[in-house]
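WARN  no MSA supplied for this record, continuing single-sequence
INFO  ligand: xanthosine-5'-monophosphate
INFO  echoing inputs
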Amino acid sequence: MGPVIVVDFGAQYAQLIARRVREVQVYSEVVPHTATVDEIMAKKPAAIILSGGPASAYSPDAPGMDPELAKQGVPIFGICYGFQVLAQALGGTVEATGSREYGRTEVAVASDGGILHRELPARHQVWMSHGDSVTKAPPGAAVTASSERTPVAAYENPDERYAGVQYHPEVLHSPHGQEVLRRFLRDIAGIRPEWTTASIVDEQIGRIRTQIGDGRAICGLSGGVDSAVAAALVQRAIGDRLTCVFVDHGLLRAGERAQVERDFVAATGVNLVTVDARERFLDALAGVTDPEQKRKIIGREFIRVFEQAERDLKAKGDYRFLVQGTLYPDVVESGGGAGASNIKSHHNVGGLPEDLQFELVEPLRLLFKDEVRRVGLELGLPETIVHRQPFPGPGLGIRIIGEVTHDRLETLRAADAIAREELTSAGLDRDIWQCPVVLLADVRSVGVQGDGRTYGHPVVLRPVSSEDAMTADWTRLPYDVLERISTRITNEVSEVNRVVLDVTSKPPGTIEWE
Ligand code: XMP
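INFO  complex generated
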C-alpha cells in the first residue's frame, strides 16, 4: 500500500501532520498543493490528508483543491483550511461568519460522536486557527463536534470514507488530536500500522543492496547522528565494502574523536579511516577573525582533506558510491509555492563539491530526525551517539570569538567538557536542544584569585530549548547547576575567570555567537 499523502496548503503544519501519521506507524509523505490529481494518484495513496493553510477558502487566489481528488475513492481527511476546501468540494458551504477562533478552544462532542469523537470527553480542548467557517457540512456527512462559535467543528461520512476537523489535531494543544487522527487512519481509512522501525531498517537495507550491488561506498562521519545512522545502515547492508572517513579538524569537542573511533566502531564493526588534519586547519585559520571567513576556510579545507581521502581509497578499490545523511525535511517539497523543492542549502562542513564522481546513497531521505534516532537504536548504536545534541560543522572554530589558536581551543574544550558533564549529571540533556559554550578570546576580564588580580577571559553559556533550531528560547537552568558549572570552570580552567549566561531568545539572537 502506498503512503498517506499530506497535501500542504502552505501552513507550517504539513510536516508535523506527516510525523503524527508516522507516529501511529503509518508511512506518510508531504506534497505541495500544486501537485495534480494524477501525480497524487501515481503514488497510490492509502489516504489523503489536506493540511491547514493561511488562505481564506473563498478568496479568488486561494489554493484550491481539485474536486476530482475527492472522487478517486481514496479516503480523505481535512484539517482546518483543508476541512473547509474539502467541505466545498463535496457540496458543503464555507462562509466568513466573522467569528474567528485562534488558540485554545473548547469543543463539544455531539450526542453521537461518530467514529472520530466517540467516547472522548464531552467537552475538551482543541487548538483552533481560522477566520472562515464551514456553515453546512457536505450532504450525507454527520456533524460530530461543535464549538461556541463554530457549529460545524467536525464532520464525517464513514461510508464515503471522508472526514475532517476544523481544529488542528496534530498539535499538542489538542490533547485528543492524535487519537482522532489514529481513528481516521484505522477505522475510516482501514490502514494497518505497519511502518515500524524494524520495517524501516529492513526496507532500507534492501534498497541499499539494490543500489550498490557489489560496489563499494564511502561515508564521511561528522560525529553527528545522521551520518552515524546512515553509515550504520549501509554497513548492515554491504558490510566491509563500506569505508567511513572521519576528519579530525582539531575543532572537535573533548572525547568526540574517541566516540567515533572507539564507540561507533565497536557498535558497528565499520572500517574507519581517521585523517588527522589538526595542524592543517590551524595553519589555515591563523590570523582569521571574521566568522564567515572562518566558515569558508573550514569548509574549503574540509573538502580538500576529504577529497584526498577519497582519492586514496579510490586508488585501492572501486569506490563509486558516497553515503549522505540527508533527512526528509531537507528534501521535502513543501509550501504552496511553484513546486520548487526547498532543498536546504545548509552552510554545513562536508558540503559536496559539484564535480564529485560519485553516486549518492541517501538511506535517511525519507525519515524525520526522531525516526533516524530510533533506527540508530535499532541498529545498536549507543545512546550517547543517538541522542547527541547538534554541533555545528565548523565546530569550536565558530565558538572562539577572535582568532582560533591551539591554546584557545584547549581552553574552550576544557570549559565545554565541564558544562556538558554537569548538564548530563543533572539529567538535563533531553531538556536542552544544545548548549554552546563560547570563549570571548578577544575580551579580557579582570578577576581576583588568591591575592592577585587576574586577566582572564569570559566564557558564555548559551543553553537553548528548541524544536528545530529555527526559533529557540534560552533554557531556564536551575541555579545550582549554573553554580556548579561556573565554579568548576573558573577553578579548573586557568584562562577563564568569568562565566556569563546568555538570556536571549532566537530571534533576535542566533544560537551560535558567530
Ligand atoms: P544559529 O546560530 O543560526 O544556529 O541560530 C542554528 C543551528 O545551526 C547550527 N549552526 C551550524 N551548523 N554549520 C553547521 O553545520 C554552521 O556553520 C552552523 N552555524 C550554526 C547551530 O549549532 C544550531 O544548531
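The CA atoms of residues 457 and 496 lie 5 Å apart.
INFO  checksum written, moving to next record
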